[in-house]
Amino acid sequence: ARTSAVLRQASIREMAAKYSDSVELAFVADDAARIHEAGKVVVFQSMENAYPLGEDITLLQTFYVGGLRMLGLVHFESNQFADSSTDDPLHGGLSELGKDLVREANRLGMIVDASHASDDALRDMMAVSSTPVILSHSGPDGVFEHARNVPDELLIQLAESGGVVHVNAFGGYLEDLKPTAERAAALEALNDEYGSNFADMSDEEISAYRVARIALDQQFPAPRSSFEKYMEHLLYTLNLVGVDHVGIGADWDGGGGVDGMADVSDVPKITSALKAAGYSDADIEKIWSGNVLRLLRDVEAAKTANLVSPNVLN
């Protein structure tokens, strides 16, 4: 898993170098406007699931130098750092190693991402972190009760501490979408064959899993949610915590599953819907980028390490 993570970061940097006329890596918040004004796609690096670090949190420094600026501690399964919202608890929140990892992220200048973490782990992250925490792709439990969604009181606490929640657009977290019996059986067989944690798979196994998953989805299509349901989640969250603490976390690589919000070509519909709901251009700029960049600036201002990321491949 560690080797795969190192190679993944290298491949991101190589991609940016290969397509440098249209893509550029960003290392600090102020890079975003400059890159955008140059007509390029802004790429910030994040890690979803700190499992590949093993027990050696000093390795996080290597990833920081490589450009990592946001760290998600856990994914679908509880790990050595934190309990997952979709697995049995191991620590009752964060482990002591997980608390040390949060402090190391603070020292380096990385945003701490609590998406996929259990409610207790989220509470611990907010208590331990010296900077505000992000939920990079989560939703409100107040609209649809699901393990991957977050109770209102925790969303409010996150906002009051300066954090940001990026509302997820994964169909199964927006409403109760029940698969057919045939699809459920096929998914169970797929997980039996490959497992459910990419961190435990080789690159070849991940590629094989994705090919098999595409074939499965074609044979047994997943039930889908709607753009209107996504906007219900987004507007609910905005009303709950305020425009200064909300962003968009589409999670398309996680599967999507929302009719009318299949890819980036549908993004302007969100802006139009927000305008129709009475949000100003300044509000919408915060939702799309301003809030997360403000959070990154908070993290940059609080860091105590003096490391930088050599821009040798751009």
Q: Can you give keywords for this protein?
A:
TIM Barrel, two-stranded parallel sheet, single chain, seven-stranded parallel sheet, 314 residues, alpha/beta, globular, 11 strands
Quick rundown:
The protein is of the alpha/beta class and 314 residues long.
Description:
The structure is a single chain. The chain has 12 helices and 11 strands. It has 314 residues and is of the alpha/beta class. It folds into 2 domains: 46-171 and 231-302, TIM Barrel; 178-222.
How is this fold's topology laid out?
Elements: H1 2-18, E1 23-25, H2 31-37, E2 41-43, E3 45-48, H3 59-65, E4 68-72, H4 96-108, E5 111-113, H5 119-128, E6 133-140, E7 149-150, H6 152-160, E8 164-168, H7 171-174, H8 181-194, H9 203-219, E9 225-226, H10 227-241, E10 246-249, E11 258-259, H11 267-276, H12 281-302
Parallel strand pairs: 1-2, 3-4, 4-5, 5-6, 6-7, 6-8, 8-10, 9-11
CATH H-level name of the largest domain... which superfamily? Metal-dependent hydrolases
How many structural domains?
Answer: 2
CATH class of the largest domain: Alpha Beta
Q: What distance lies between the first and last C-alpha atoms, to the nearest angstrom?
A: 26 Å
Q: Label the structural class.
A: alpha/beta
Number of strands: 11
String of helices and strands: HEHEEHEHEHEEHEHHHEHEEHH
In which range does the helix fraction lie?
A: 40-55%
Q: CATH topology of the largest domain, which one?
A: TIM Barrel
Give the oligomer, counting copies of the same chain as homo and different chains as hetero: single chain
